[in-house]
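BUG: 3D viewer hangs when loading the predicted structure for this chain

Environment: internal workstation, default settings.
Expected: structure renders.
Actual: progress bar stalls at 90%.

Input used:
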Amino acid sequence: MPHPLGIDMRTVAGMGPVEHVRLAAQMECKAVSLGLEQPAGQPEGYAPWSLRDDAALRREVRAALTDGGLRIGLGEGINGSATLAPEDHAADMDIFAELGTRRIGARDNGLEREQAFDYMARLAEMARARDMDFAFEFSPIMTVRNLAEALALVAHIGGDRVSVTVDALHFFRSGGAARQLAELDAALIGHVRLCDALLKEAAVRGDEPGSGRLIPGEGDLPLREFVDALPRGKTLGLDMTLPQAALGVEAARDYLVEVVARTRALLA
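Structure tokens produced before the viewer hung:
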């Protein structure tokens, strides 16, 4: 395949970061997206964890990444906030840098447009100071809703090492067409999230629980066209919600073997 696969955090929601990294390595993936703590409201069955509070766990994650030949392709959870200043995320960025994270991802979380632009510009500056890239993720339910608006934000931030996270679901929900990606400078496309969906549902349900993030090939998003329009070598982060029957490390492993095989067959 011209595009290696990764396993994004939502796909293994609740799973510990070491298990996540090891599972991705077993799937012969090249990257993971990772947050610094177990997301609130995630499925039961996984022990609580926090990379903020557990230095030993951070060392284990670094060792697992090295052993598996993986990287953290996207650090998650640093987003716009009405109650936190950008500088309040400095300690989290330091941890991501310690873990060798390639890129920090962020969303505006509904901030007013001017505030969102300035907030993201400061986060990008902070990431760059720590030798990490910065990628902004747009969504129709956020202030910055589509690719064109996200590119306007990138232009506002300016400089290098700033790009857009392109989520297949958000991209098509916001009216995107694959040819738009083919026309972009490759450097403007940062992280890529891959899932399938039913277009009728995708148009109205967004990222609500059970929003129908399907295995590639199960929905009707034009994923082959989407992927073919990307610059070669972009890692595709599988980003979907596991069914209840696939919760737990062993069950998730069995399920993801099928997911990865079907995705590679679809895109081969």
